[in-house]
């Protein structure tokens, strides 16, 4: 005897046969089957092995809350683990395998763990592996040794390693009313809101709309409930203002009524249709949300409640009515409430023998007695199941007399022969989304369940309305009434007086008896997926865990992939009893997103690979065409070197730097941050943000400036040009352009709104080329028209306007390389034309193009600072820029920059280093006074930038070293254990080359 | 989270940059009162409840906003230009000049 397909019934398409494999064996099912229903129909009862003890496990549920029957679905090399078999729709060619078993599901070596059950208690790993040192068994190290084996033995499915070839999509949707759940409450709400003209989205996580109407066997207005649901869905499909989303799970409820949903678009298809993504991530912004998410039936906690063949009562009813599958031939039911009686009748009708209804309550209502007789079941009131028998399928169970008040068992054990035991421990509303939205659950002593409170937030944009079983109204008639009211309210309509549909349903009291656990000998499971037993919960209590949040973490109750959908309330009830407190005082944990596991692919959607935008200078294509090796600097791509055939990077930059100093070099500086600072108070603003004075700067001149942060540390440097009385062009370092802009905007908006200044980012509007070297001026003179560039017209830090190749340009004479140099700016669109004209003009002079490496080399030789030295920890004094700190005026950072710690004599300060062993340095290497390769110690500083200096013929570096200048002329060592580079160095001034600046002043 | 920019209307929080505690008062620029500077640079209120904050609509009009936000519920109680000249949400006039 085993589960089987019924002759008739169910909402499957019996004419369509679908072939799939499970653990390598071929199976068939019908269209409309889930993997769970199809396998059950073929007599499969064993679906998986449990997490810790490797106990055989079968189906507990029929829906999303299934904790046991987790499978891995394979598509080519791609494996998706831990999917409940109840959520896998079968398709031709489906390949699914079971999990956590070795070598096979039926014969599993780790099942011996069951014998060690006394050892693998709650906190086993903490206690064993964080414990005291016993011989070689050192706590953490021992754990690391064992981890490999434990991870193999305990666990769920294995993640794949093959890249996921699927495509995912993200959609943004907006609606007036989002209805979550499409049972009778949700359907009615969607219809009512849509009839008011509201834009409605109706979301259902199952493939079929209708929820309980699909399997309840009830009638609505005289027709089967499923027909009624089908009719409403048909009507909604015809509405322009309604979007129906089946196979879609709303998994997150965020601020401002933003909800996240996952639509499984093609997971149920053998081959996706053209253009279809695998899954679609919906970001839904709803004015109002109707939560009609229903409820979950709870298991009862008793010894052997995890044996294959023990199932939730409604799940069996659903398998019979929706899928045409009987989970057993001889079925017993064990309940603390009335709802199981309806299940008994339904299963009887479907063809099973109902051997007994075991009810913990001693007085059962006449209506329920009548239902038990209708099912031809023996009614054992005031009894409880104390044991189950069987291995990979249920063989029977034992019952005893049970006193509900004391929890005591009495009388002889009686054996009942059954191949399926259905349990019902009452119902818990699915309050997850409301909990995520911030609502605190309230315990209802009648329903013995946490109910969502009415939302009371004063925030008008966080609106949800509950309907149906979600609110604890478990009958279909109530669900329809609440659904209509919710839909009308959500759409801003007025309450309707029209008659509601008439529901024909089995009678029953929605309130269960307050019984969660039968205490008898044997393992009674609370959390099936994480193998947490009632005894584990009590052990946690004995060991001093009183907070429900700690209980959860210590026992891992409710922390598996099902997030405790079935185990939450029974676990709390057992904890409350151990604490001797009522359940509401123990409280419940808050649910967090996601409601069900979400694929990472759907979250990324189209955004994968390199997500950063690429910023390219106007001359980018020229660089590529002329042999540049590009380097990414922040978002920008800049030439690193223009290497010749066979050249190393070092050879290339040395050649470029050398040629620049001997004749001339040109570099693309379009990436420098450029901010137009304009207005009557522009000069005043600059005086406040720079450490030096800008209001005295003459029109047509530029000045080097330094900014500090409010806390007195160095922030950024650059030159600012005065183009007019009220018109300045500020340049910033490439990396800090955005930060400086935000800094200025903040001060103008928040601190000094009285200043009449506007700041505009003009970085992208201008192309820039810096041309420097002894021949730079001659090259410019040969191509610039409309202005002279001689020393009188264009002195150091002077600005002129002219044309190159007919393009208007602005030229400023300033130098980063230490040579006589000019920055030439044109409109971005003309950048390449000007650049090419300069290259052409430079040809007779041997002008070279150079990249970031040569640029860095020349600046290191000159001892100029960049972001490597202005690293957020250095002050102006550390960098010997104190000459820039004006004493005539306050500026940002001036009050804080001279605090004790910022002027201490042992601060790291800027120096130059020369390699005495003629070997290259590495950035980040430490400087020590005493070389000790075995045990490096006492760093006195570190290298910030290094290169081979063609001007000096030596390997040199800039470094931040304790004491700074005081060490000039002394020797120390570089100590770089990571790269095994040790050697003697000399500490010198950071101004290696042309310290008096005679070359750039000309 | 949605923030209603007085200039641009309701926008997602990802368009905005948090710019810190709005309760700070910057001392006069020439002030040498280090305690006052210290409080301004380092002290933050961090209340559990209503909080004055500065946000910048960095992905929009770039105006800085003074926002009263409840740090427990993320409820936004008021939004105004940091420069003053508050316009109520949806009233698209004035700008931030």
UniProtKB/TrEMBL annotation, chain A:
Ranges where the GCVT N-terminal domain occurs: 619-889
Annotated SoxA A3 domain residues: 521-606
An annotated Gene Ontology molecular function: sarcosine oxidase activity
FAD/NAD(P)-binding domain span: 176-441
Biological-process GO terms, alphabetical: tetrahydrofolate metabolic process
Source taxon at top rank: Bacteria
Name of a matching Pfam family: SO_alpha_A3
Domain Aminomethyltransferase C-terminal: 909-994
Keywords noted in UniProt: Oxidoreductase
PANTHER family to which the protein is assigned, alphabetical: AMINOMETHYLTRANSFERASE, AMINOMETHYLTRANSFERASE, MITOCHONDRIAL
Annotated family: Belongs to the GcvT family.
Protein name: Sarcosine oxidase subunit alpha
Source species of the chain: Mesorhizobium tamadayense
UniProtKB/TrEMBL annotation, chain B:
Gene Ontology molecular function, alphabetical: sarcosine oxidase activity
Superkingdom of origin: Bacteria
A Pfam family assignment: SoxD
GO biological process terms on file: tetrahydrofolate metabolic process
Cross-referenced InterPro entries: SoxD, SoxD_sf
Protein name in UniProt: Sarcosine oxidase subunit delta family protein
């Amino acid at each position: 005897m085993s589960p089987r397909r019924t002759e008739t019934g169910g909402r499957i398409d019996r004419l369509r046969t679908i072939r799939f494999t499970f653990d390598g064996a071929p199976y068939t099912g019908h269209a409309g089957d889930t993997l769970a229903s199809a396998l059950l129909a073929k007599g499969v009862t064993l679906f998986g092995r449990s997490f810790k003890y490797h106990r055989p496990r079968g189906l507990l549920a029929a829906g999303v809350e299934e904790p046991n029957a987790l499978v891995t679905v394979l598509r080519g090399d791609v494996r998706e683990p831990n999917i409940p078999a109840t959520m896998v729709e079968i398709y031709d060619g489906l390949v699914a395998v079971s999990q956590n078993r070795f070598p096979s599901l039926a014969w599993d070596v780790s099942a011996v763990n069951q014998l060690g059950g006394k050892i693998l208690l709650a906190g086993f790993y903490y206690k064993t592996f964080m414990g005291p040192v016993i011989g070689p068994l050192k706590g953490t190290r021992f754990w690391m040794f064992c981890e490999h084996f434990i991870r193999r033995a305990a666990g769920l499915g294995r993640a794949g390693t093959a890249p996921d070839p699927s495509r995912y999509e993200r959609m943004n949707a907006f609606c007036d009313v989002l209805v979550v759940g499409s049972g009778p409450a949700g359907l009615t709400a969607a219809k009512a809101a849509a009839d008011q003209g509201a834009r409605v989205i109706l979301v259902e996580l199952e493939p079929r709309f209708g929820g309980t109407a699909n399997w309840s066997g009830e009638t609505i207005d005289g027709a089967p409930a499923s027909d009624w649901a089908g009719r409403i869905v048909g009507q909604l499909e015809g509405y322009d203002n309604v979007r129906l989303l089946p196979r879609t799970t709303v998994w997150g409820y965020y601020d401002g009524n933003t909800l996240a949903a996952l639509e499984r678009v093609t997971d149920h298809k053998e081959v996706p249709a053209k253009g279809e993504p695998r899954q679609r991530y919906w970001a839904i912004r709803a004015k109002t949300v109707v939560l009609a998410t229903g409820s979950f039936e709870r298991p009862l906690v008793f010894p052997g409640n995890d044996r294959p063949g023990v199932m939730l009562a409604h799940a069996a009813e659903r398998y019979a009515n929706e899928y045409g599958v009987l989970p057993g031939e001889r079925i017993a039911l064990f309940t603390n409430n009335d709802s199981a009686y309806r299940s008994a009748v339904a299963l009887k009708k479907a063809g099973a023998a109902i051997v007994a209804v075991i009810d913990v309550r001693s007085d059962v209502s006449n209506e329920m007695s009548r239902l038990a007789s209708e099912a031809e079941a023996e009614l054992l009131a005031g009894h409880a199941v104390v044991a189950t028998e069987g291995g990979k399928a249920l063989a029977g169970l034992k019952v005893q007399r049970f006193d509900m008040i004391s929890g005591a068992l009495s009388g002889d054990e009686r054996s009942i022969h059954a191949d399926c035991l259905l349990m019902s421990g009452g119902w818990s509303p699915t309050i997850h989304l409301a909990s995520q939205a911030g609502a605190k659950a309230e315990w209802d002593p009648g329903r013995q369940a946490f109910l969502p409170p009415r939302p009371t937030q004063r925030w008008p944009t966080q609106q949800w309305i509950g309907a149906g079983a979600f609110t604890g109204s478990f009958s279909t008639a109530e669900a329809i009434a609440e659904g209509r009211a919710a839909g009308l309210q959500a759409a801003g309509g007025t309450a309707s007086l029209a008659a509601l549909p008439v529901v024909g349903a089995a009678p029953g009291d929605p309130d269960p008896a307050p019984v969660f656990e039968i205490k008898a000998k044997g393992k009674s499971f609370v959390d099936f997926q994480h193998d947490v037993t009632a005894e584990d919960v009590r052990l946690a209590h004995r060991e001093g865990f009183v907070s429900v949040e700690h209980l959860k973490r210590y026992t891992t109750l409710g922390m598996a992939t099902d997030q405790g959908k079935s185990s939450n309330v029974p676990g709390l009830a057992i904890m409350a009893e151990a604490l001797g407190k009522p359940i509401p005082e123990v409280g419940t944990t808050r649910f967090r997103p996601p409601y069900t596991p979400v694929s990472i692919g759907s979250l990324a959607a189209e955004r994968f690979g390199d997500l950063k935008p690429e910023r390219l200078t106007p001359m980018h294509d020229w660089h590529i065409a002329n042999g540049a090796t590009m380097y990414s600097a922040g978002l920008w791509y800049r030439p690193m070197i223009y290497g010749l055939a066979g050249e190393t990077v070092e050879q290339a930059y040395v050649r470029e730097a050398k040629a620049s100093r001997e004749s001339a070099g040109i570099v693309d500086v379009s990436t420098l941050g450029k901010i137009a600072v304009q207005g009557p108070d522009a000069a005043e603003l600059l005086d406040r943000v720079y450490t030096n004075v800008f209001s005295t700067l003459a029109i047509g001149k530029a000045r080097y400036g330094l900014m500090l942060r409010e806390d007195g540390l160095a922030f950024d440097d650059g030159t600012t040009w005065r183009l007019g009385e009220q018109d300045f062009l500020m340049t910033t370092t490439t990396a800090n352009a955005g930060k400086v802009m935000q800094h200025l905007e903040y001060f103008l908006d928040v601190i000094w709104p009285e200043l009449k200044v506007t700041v505009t980012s003009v970085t992208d509007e201008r192309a820039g080329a810096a041309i420097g070297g002894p021949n730079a001026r001659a090259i410019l003179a040969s191509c610039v028209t409309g202005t002279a560039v001689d020393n009188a017209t264009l002195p150091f830090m002077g600005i002129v306007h002219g044309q190159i190749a007919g393009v208007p340009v602005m030229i400023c004479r300033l130098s980063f390389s230490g040579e006589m140099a000019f920055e030439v700016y044109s409109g971005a669109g003309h950048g390449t034309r000007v650049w090419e004209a300069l290259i052409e003009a430079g040809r007779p002079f041997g002008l070279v193009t150079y990249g970031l490496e040569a640029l860095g080399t020349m600046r290191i030789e000159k001892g100029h600072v960049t972001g490597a030295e202005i690293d957020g920890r250095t002050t102006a004094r550390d960098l010997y820029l104190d000459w820039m700190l004006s004493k005539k005026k306050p500026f940002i950072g001036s009050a804080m920059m001279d605090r004790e710690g910022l002027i201490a004599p042992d601060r790291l300060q800027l120096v130059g280093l020369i390699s005495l062993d003629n070997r290259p340095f590495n950035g980040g290497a430490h400087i020590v006074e005493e070389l000790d390769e075995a045990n490096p110690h006492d760093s006195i500083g570190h290298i910030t930038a290094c290169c081979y200096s063609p001007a000096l013929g030596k390997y040199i570096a800039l470094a931040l070293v304790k004491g700074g200048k005081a060490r000039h002329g002394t020797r120390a060592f570089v100590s770089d254990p990571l790269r095994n580079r040790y050697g003697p160095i000399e500490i010198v001034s950071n101004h290696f080359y042309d310290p008096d600046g005679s070359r750039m002043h000309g | 989270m949605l923030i209603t920019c007085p200039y641009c209307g309701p926008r997602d929080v990802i368009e905005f940059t948090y710019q810190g505690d709005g309760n700070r008062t910057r001392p006069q620029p020439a002030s040498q009162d280090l305690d006052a500077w210290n409080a301004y640079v380092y002290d933050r209120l961090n209340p559990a409840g209503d909080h004055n904050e500065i946000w910048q609509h960095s992905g929009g009009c770039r105006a800085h906003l003074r926002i009263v936000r409840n740090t427990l519920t993320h409820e936004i109680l008021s939004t105004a230009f940091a420069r003053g000249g508050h316009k109520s949400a949806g009233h698209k006039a004035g700008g931030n000049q």
